[in-house]
User: What shape does this take?
Amino acid sequence: MPEQPVSGPGRRPARRPRRPSRATHRPSPMRRTLFRRRTKEPETAAEFPADHEETTGAGWDRQLVRTERARDRLAASLWRPGRGQLIAALILFIVGLAGVMQVRINAADDIYATARREDLIQLLDGLGSESRRLEGEIAELERTRTSLQSGADTERVAREEAEKRVEVLSVLAGTVPAEGPGIRMRIADPNNLVNADVLLNAVEEMRDAGAEVIEVNNTIRVVASTWFGMDSRGLVIDGQPVSSPIVVEVIGEPHSLAEAAKFRGGIVSEITGPQIGGQVQIEELNRVVIESLHAVRQNQYAQPASPPPTPR
Assistant: This one.
């Protein structure tokens, strides 16, 4: 028989040990209800979501029909736009056109806005020289007109004027030698990258600066009908090959021609830039002699027209 705990003065009575509980932990009724509601599966058609039918065969058919109808409406609106769509398209076109024009204007203005002061002065000097030359030609033509209208020795004045015109036209056509002040431009092209476009740009810049006669390598006379190209031999002008270094002699106002070539973005900058890597030397000369001539070809189709009858 087990001994009973003895209680005495100064001692607390011993507690009886608890029996281990065999019952397991069970959730409360409220938790069981919530769990059932959350995990309950739909049992009827009304409990399925609204888009459940779209995952079935009939739902897919209705979806395809709606897609086809939307596509037909879009095609109809594109092929037969309404008045509002046409007005909106016209407004967008005008806005886009104005934007493109503004960008081009700004790009053209940036060329002069970013130019140095020295470059602008050179450009103005070239324009001033060209303006003075044109004013001199106008004054000479006015004197000729006055002489012809005065009636004094009209035949002699007309003959002299005709001879002057023949000389000028002969020089421009390249059928007679020419001399005068100008420049000599020597182009060194070690990499053979100076093509027809580059040389044509050089000729055009010289003409814009007032060049009257141009010659290349002492053998090729550049006139209005001269063409530049490339073939198996390299650079050719009027069918004649051009060897390096290229020497371009120009008759005109020396300072204007030299400054036009040296202008930033001009022919010197293009040739000496990293894309070509060439060298350009320019000499201003008081006398340049050009002796090469241009062979005139007979026109195949154009013929001189008879002068109109003189009104009585």
